[in-house]
Every structure is written in C-alpha cells, then in structure tokens.
C-alpha cells in the first residue's frame, strides 16, 4: 500500500465568500460532478468512443482556480482530463457533451472528442492527449499576453493563463523547461498541479525523487504552494493571490493541489491497483460534501436551496445529452475543414 503523505497545515486562511460567490462555486462543482457521472453512463451505453478520463473528486481544483480568473478573457490549458475544466470556463454543457458524442455541434466540431476540447470564445486552449503537451502551449499564451502589453503597448493585454496537469507529468521535461522560462521572463501564468497521487497505475512516490512538487518552484525562484485540493475555498484563496501577482507583472506561481480521483484512470481502467482503504479515506474528503456543509454551517445557504441547485444542474445535464443525441454527425465532405485557423 502506498504511504499516505501527511496532510500539511495550509498557509492561508480560507477565502471569505459572499452568498452569491458560494452558490456559484457550489453550482460549478455540482455541474462538474453530475456531468461526469452522466459521461460514465453514456460511455457504458456505447455513446462515446476512445478513452474518456473523468475528473470526479478533483472538482475543487477546477472551480477554485478557474472561477478565480476572468472566464472568457483569461486562458486555460488542460489535459486529457478536460471536461470539467471546459465547464468551469463556461463552455456550455451541450457543446461539451456533443463533442464527446463526436457530433458537429461539439465545441471542437466533433473533430476532437474527449481529449481535445477547445473553445476560442472561452479561451480554452485545449485538452491534450500527450501528457505535458499543454504546458508549453500555456507558457506561449502567457508570453503573448506579456509581449502584447509590454512590447506592443496594449494595456488591455493583462490576461493570465492557468496550465493544469497531473503529478506524473511533473517528471517530464516540459514542466522544468517551462517553469524556467516563465520565471525568467516573469510570465503571467499559474502552473496548477493536480496531484491525485497516481499516474495511471504508478504511485507518485515511486516515480519522483521529491514527491512534494511545490518545492520544485524554489529552484526557479518562483513561489510554490501546496494546498488542500479538496477544499474549494483554500484553492480559491491561493489562486486569487497568484492571479493578482501574475496580473501585476510579478510572474508565475506553482500551485500543488493535493487531490484524488474517485474513479479509475479512464473508464477503461478497472481500478484494481489502489487500495480500498486509500479510496475510502479520500472519499471522506469529498469536496462537494465538504463545501455543502460549509455553506450551511455559515448560513450562506440551506439544504433545500442546495437541492434546488442540484435539480437544476441535473436538468442541464439531461438537456446536454438530448442535444448531443439530436445533433448531426460531422459531414464527411468537410473532413478537411478546421485544419487551418482561417476556417
Ligand atoms: C508523452 C506521454 N507519455 C505517456 C503517456 C501515457 N499516459 C497517459 S496518462 C499518463 C499518466 C499521467 O498522470 P498524471 O500526470 O498524474 O495525470 P492524471 O491522469 O493523474 O490526471 C500517462 C503516462 C502520454 N499520454 N503522453
Ligand atoms: Mg496523477
């Protein structure tokens, strides 16, 4: 059994939220969870093809970071585990579901599928099948913001970029090269590690010489934080600080979110390698249950209100499925369309 990393004492007090912010964060996490549960159902009913990687358990990271940014203006770069990042960015559930069904109405016009979600209006730079592939893309996006602002004099070019990737990916070269460049050029970027302890069936502690990933920031002279990735307010607090620093021209931040995926690596993974005890310990930290309890304890919402949100989201997800079913397949005569930007 993999030894459990001691849960650290986190540096920041939880961010204070208003009732409206709290409900917005709750809604976003519930959307991520319900959408993914529905994906599993549709996958096993043969509606989706290829690999489908779900995000259940990690919702506080997507919501905590992306909802601390300016959706539609700031850039987000994801991985193959990208559906929930897309939803937090504001890509409509209909367009994400249709993409997973390979339909022409999908956000990537049915050309991408699960691992290649993309949305120009929502500044979603992509899901990427290769691990680490998005890190240089995100670094480039951050570079262009800074270049437009400082070299071309565009004062509106103050966008921040967030690059999401897993623990396993931090052993790849792109991670180190991009951290170096981002620190050197003080790029406006958040490197967000979703440390869910596993890279498919490889335990993080067995694959890396220094399992505390946030410490790797220090060799680049960059701030590095570890945060409870099951606590949306803790993630949000750290993300807000990092976004403010990036926007002020003070450069990048590495944020290591300690989290866990509640399902197997992909829907094709029987998930037999992780121990029952480990899974149960992390299930008890479910970020949605934790935040629901917080909202009611703080009198920001009551149970019927939260149930009403869940009901609304359930219908959003059902509607997305119906939309995907009713949508047309891409037209084979348009196979070469959308290969170049001018299309
Ligand atoms: C360059 C490259 N090498 C290997 C793979 C095969 N692969 C797919 S997922 C994965 C593990 C990644 O784990 P992690 O970064 O922790 O992300 P998680 O799946 O846990 O979110 C690997 C090695 C790949 N997709 N790309
Ligand atoms: Mg991982």
Automatic annotation (TrEMBL):
Its EC number is 1.2.4.1. The keyword Oxidoreductase applies. Its cofactor is thiamine diphosphate. SUPFAM superfamilies: Thiamin diphosphate-binding fold (THDP-binding) (SSF52518). GO terms for biological process: pyruvate decarboxylation to acetyl-CoA. InterPro entries: DH_E1, PDH_E1_Alpha_Subunit, Pyrv_DH_E1_asu_subgrp-y, THDP-binding. It is an enzyme of class 1 (oxidoreductase). Gene3D superfamilies: 3.40.50.970. Residues 29-332 form the Dehydrogenase E1 component domain. Keywords: Oxidoreductase, Pyruvate, Thiamine pyrophosphate. It catalyses: N(6)-[(R)-lipoyl]-L-lysyl-[protein] + pyruvate + H(+) = N(6)-[(R)-S(8)-acetyldihydrolipoyl]-L-lysyl-[protein] + CO2. It comes from the Bacteria. One of its GO terms (molecular function) is pyruvate dehydrogenase (acetyl-transferring) activity. PANTHER family: PYRUVATE DEHYDROGENASE E1 COMPONENT SUBUNIT ALPHA, PYRUVATE DEHYDROGENASE E1 COMPONENT, ALPHA SUBUNIT BACTERIAL AND ORGANELLAR. Heterodimer of an alpha and a beta chain. The pyruvate dehydrogenase complex catalyzes the overall conversion of pyruvate to acetyl-CoA and CO(2). NCBIfam families: PDH_E1_alph_y. This is Pyruvate dehydrogenase E1 component subunit alpha. It comes from Myxacorys almedinensis A. The gene is pdhA.
């Amino acid at each position: 059994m993999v030894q459990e990393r001691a849960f650290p004492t986190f540096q920041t007090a939880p961010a204070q939220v208003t009732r409206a912010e709290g409900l917005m964060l709750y809604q976003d996490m519930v959307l991520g969870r319900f959408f993914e549960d529905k994906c599993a159902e549709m996958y096993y009913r043969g509606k989706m093809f290829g690999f489908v990687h779900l995000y259940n358990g990690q919702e506080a990271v997507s919501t905590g970071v992306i909802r601390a940014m300016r959706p539609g203006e700031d850039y987000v770069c994801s991985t193959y585990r990208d559906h929930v990042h897309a939803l937090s960015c504001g890509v409509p559930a209909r367009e994400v579901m249709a993409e997973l069904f390979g339909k022409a109405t999908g956000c990537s016009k049915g050309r991408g599928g699960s691992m290649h979600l993309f949305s120009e209006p929502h500044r979603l730079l992509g899901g990427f099948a290769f691990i680490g592939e998005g890190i240089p893309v995100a670094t480039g996006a951050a570079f262009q913001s800074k270049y437009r602002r400082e070299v071309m004099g565009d004062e509106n070019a103050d966008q921040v970029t967030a690059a999401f990737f897993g623990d396993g990916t931090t052993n790849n070269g792109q991670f180190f090269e991009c951290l170096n460049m981002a620190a050197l050029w003080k790029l406006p970027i958040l490197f967000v590690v979703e440390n869910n302890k596993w890279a498919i069936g490889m335990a993080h502690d067995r694959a890396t010489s220094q399992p505390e990933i946030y410490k790797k920031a220090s060799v680049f002279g960059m701030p590095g934080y570890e945060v409870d990735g099951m606590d949306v307010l803790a993630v949000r607090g750290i993300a807000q600080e990092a976004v403010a620093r990036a926007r002020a021209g003070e450069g990048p931040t590495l944020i290591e979110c300690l989290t866990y995926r509640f399902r197997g690596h992909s829907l094709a993974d029987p998930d037999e390698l992780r121990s029952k005890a480990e899974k149960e310990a992390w299930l008890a930290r479910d970020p949605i249950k934790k935040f629901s309890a917080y909202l009611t304890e703080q009198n920001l919402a009551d149970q019927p209100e939260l149930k009403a949100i869940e009901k609304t989201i359930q219908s959003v997800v059902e509607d997305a499925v119906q939309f995907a079913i009713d949508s047309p397949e891409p037209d084979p005569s348009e196979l070469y369309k959308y290969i170049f930007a001018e299309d």
